Amino acid sequence: MRYQISGKQIDIGEALQTHVKSELSDILNKYAGRPTEAYVVFSKSGHEYVCESVVHLSTGLTAQATGKATEIYAALDSSAAKMDKQLRRYKRRLKDHHSDRSQPVELSDAGSYILAPTDESDEAEQDTVNAMIVAEMETKIPSLSVGEAVMQMEIASAPVLVFRNEKHNGINVVYRRDDGNIGWIDPKTQG
Length: 191
Known about the structure:
The protein is an alpha+beta fold.
């Protein structure tokens, strides 16, 4: 497994890196089987340390957790505990999906853009769609079943997930509705 451990304006010592690898490998060996890579970023927000952990699993799923504490090791422990809880909740599904899948999840490349908010005061320009692109990135679209997509969205604590439906290879979206339920958008192809 590949680890990328870094700090935002914080020096990360060898002892902390060893502790991160030990904590995450213990958790992942219990639940996930074959994780491929882990990204851990430490930062400081006011008087608290923040630890953001993202782990990519061989099944194509991504688990992420954030922990905060007044000490850096406690922030890691908080993040690790949250990831442990997420993976424990989905252990059966992770194992079931992993056994059904002979190949890792296929990922397609896609563009991802961040747009600047429009100025609400200029009514004449509101009719035109001239949003300014602030950032342009590359993202991956996984090829999943609907059940796997819902699980991925919940594990990642994301409000929405765009994925390629394995059943018919079309682009689909799952999202968390305001009423707490999960919505699924499956566009029909015109033929």
